[in-house]
# Entry
Amino acid sequence: MALDSHIAQLIRTHFPVVPVPSLPSIRLHRAGPKSGLWRLAEQDEEGFGTPYWAYVWGGGLVLAHYVRDHPEVVAGRKVLDLGTGSGLVAIAAAKAGAGEVVAADIDKYAMTAAALNAALNDATMAIIQGDMLDGPPPAVDLILIGDLFYAPELAERVLPFLDRCLNAHVDVLIGDPWRADLPRSRLQLVAEYPIVDFGTSARAEPQMAGVFVVA
# Structure
């Protein structure tokens, strides 16, 4: 993917590189106290929007932990990180030995952030922009989904897509900090990790987040 030079410069300038909490071997461009998000949203002509990609979300963090601890789930396989955001989960998969990694998002800022973060971590991946949820199952072995059940209207689209993928014999792993719209009756818990989620104080006590397969 060719980097958007304007977006890349904006990210490099306003989003410092810092280690991921509890996964310090991975570094990301992340929002900080001096990033000036409101100012960027007002001034940027490219459509800055809400920078979900600039934060470490609990579902992505727990999934990255799981992939690190269980590299056999990705080793040698073609893996899709759906809703990649910062690219954290895709980077974890690449570092764990995935045969091929594809990172997908609808946000062009997320695509550029993921590309920059992949380079920071010497992770090789393809990065694509687009909404896959209404389309056919992608030609991959495994789909990793970190925190896509954060809104009811999105959750209603994700689950039918996952059912189509499972019917096509594509494996799915979901990371989520037990958000309200998580379809718990359809999921089987395979692991839990204590994490500090996006939106909570850095001093907050870690809460358990889960890794799931679709039942």
Q: What stands out?
A: The CA atoms of residues 59 and 147 lie 4 Å apart. The chain has six helices and nine strands. Helices lie at 5-14, 37-43, 58-69, 88-95, 108-120, 152-167. The chain has a mean pLDDT of 91.
